[in-house]
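Technical annex B. To support the medicinal chemistry partners, we prepared a structural model of the target in complex with BES, based solely on the information shown next.
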Amino acid sequence: MQVQFLDAASTSGCSLVARLVNQDAIPADLEPLLAEGAKRSRFSGKVGQIYEGFAERGGKVVRVALAGVGKAEAKERSANIEKAGAAIAGKYLRSGETEILFDFTGSGISAEEAAAALLAARMRGWALDSYKTKLSDDKKISLATISVTGAPEDTETAWQAASALATGVEFTRELVTEPANTIYPESFVARCRERMEGSGLSIRTLDGDEMRELGMGALLGVSQGSVREPRMLIMEWMGGAEGEAPVAFVGKGVTFDTGGISLKQPGGMEDMKWDMGGAGAVAGTMLALALRKAKANVIGVCGLVENMPDGNAQRPGDVVTSMSGQTIEVINTDAEGRLVLCDAMTWVQRNYKPARMVDLATLTGAIIAALAHEYAGIFSNNDALAADLTAAGEASGDRLWRFPMGPAYDKQLESPIADMKNVGSRYGGSITAAQFLKRFVENDTPWAHLDIAGMVWADKPGATWAKGATGYGVRLLDRFVRDTLES
Ligand code: BES
Ligand code: MN
Ligand code: ZN
C-alpha cells in the first residue's frame, strides 16, 4: 500500500474520504446529512467506531467515513489514533475501493499522530494472499493507495520514518507467515538479501562448515537432524558514531520446530513454522533502521536451523560443546531455541563486543501460560537495560513484563555429566530458559532476553493486524534504538 500527500486542490478525484473524529465532537463543517446520520446511528466518536455515509461534493457522490478516536485528552491518545487509522484500512481493504483520502483538516492532531494513523493503516492493510489461488474478485485486496491531506506540516517527515517501520513490520510478517517449506535457513537468508538490497545494510552469513570450524556444537546439534543446511545471518547497520560499540540483536530462527526426537504432539504443530519469529523481528528491525537511516550502530544476528527428528538427529542425553567451550547435556531436544541462541550470542560478543545485547525468541510455551498474548517476557542482568526496553515497549505498544532471575533457578540446570542441562524442572520454565542463556553472557555485557512466544502469532484479529503474524518486536526495537541511541 502506497501513501501519498496531496494539497487540498488535488483531492477532487478521491471518492472515499476518511476523517478522524474526537468523541462527542462531530465536525461543524460536515454536511448536515452526514452529521445527522452519524448522530442517528449513535456514532459519538468513541475509539473504533466508524460511521459511513455519502455526500455530494463538487457534483460527485463521495463516500465519507468518520472514525472515532476517543477523547482528545485520553492518555492512550496515540494508540487510539492508531486504532482509528487501522479500522478504516481494515474496513475498506477488500471493499472494492482502491484509494482512501485521509483528510486530517481540523482534526487537531500532531504530525507524529497523523503518521501513527498512517502507520496503523498500512499495518492493517498487509496480508499474504499469494497462496490463495481461488480468491474471488470481491474478496481480493482492492485498497492500494492512501492519500493524505490537511495534515500538519511535519507529517511527511514523520511519515518517512514511520513508513520505514511499516516496511520492516511487513517484512517480518512475511517471513513469519510463509510456511516452512518456503522459508528455511537458506531461503530466509535469500529473502533478506533480496529485500535488503540497496538498503545500505551489510550482510554476511556463516554456513555449516564455518560454524563447525568455530565450534558451534550447540546450534549444529539442533540442525543435524534436518536436511536443510543451517545458517547464521549477520546484518550490520553502522549509522552511528564511528568506533562506537554497537547494540546487538540476536534472533531465534528455528524455521520449523518438530521438537526433534523429543517430538511434539501433532495438534497445532503447524504453528511451529513461526518459531523463527525472533529472527524475523530482528531482520525486520534491521530493514526498518536502514530504510530510515538510523543514527545508530546496530548488529542483527539470526541463528537459523530446522529442528527435525531423523536417523541423524541428536538424542536426549547427548552432550554437545558450545562455541563458548561450555558443555551441555541435551535432556530434551525440544528445548532447542536456547541451543541455537547460545552460540549466536557467543559469536556476536566475541566479534563485536556489543555495548548491549538483546535476544528475541519464541522460547517457551510457559511464557504464554504466564502472560497470554498481552506481554512478552523480559529477563535481564541489567536494570537500566530492562527499564529502557520496558519503556520502549509501552511507547510502541509491543509490551514487555519483567521476570525474576537468580541462583535458585540457575541451580536447576546442573547436570551430572556436563556443565549444564538444557532444561530445568517442571516449573518456571521460562525463567530456567533465561538462566541457561545467561550462562553465555560474557564480561557482564548488559543483556536482555525477550521471550516472545505469545506475541508473534495471533489467533484473533488485533488493532493493526488480521489473524496471523503480528510483526511483534519490530516497533519495540525501533523505538528502543530511537530512544536510547538517537536522542
Ligand atoms: N518453540 C517452542 C516454544 C513454543 C511453544 C513457542 C508454543 C510457541 C508456542 C520451544 O522450542 C519449545 O519447544 N519449548 C519447550 C521447552 C521445554 C521442552 C523445556 C516448551 O515450551 O514446551
Ligand atoms: Mn522446541
Ligand atoms: Zn522452538
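Notes passed to the chemistry partners:
The CA atoms of residues 142 and 389 lie 37 Å apart.
The chain has two domains: 2-150, 163-484.
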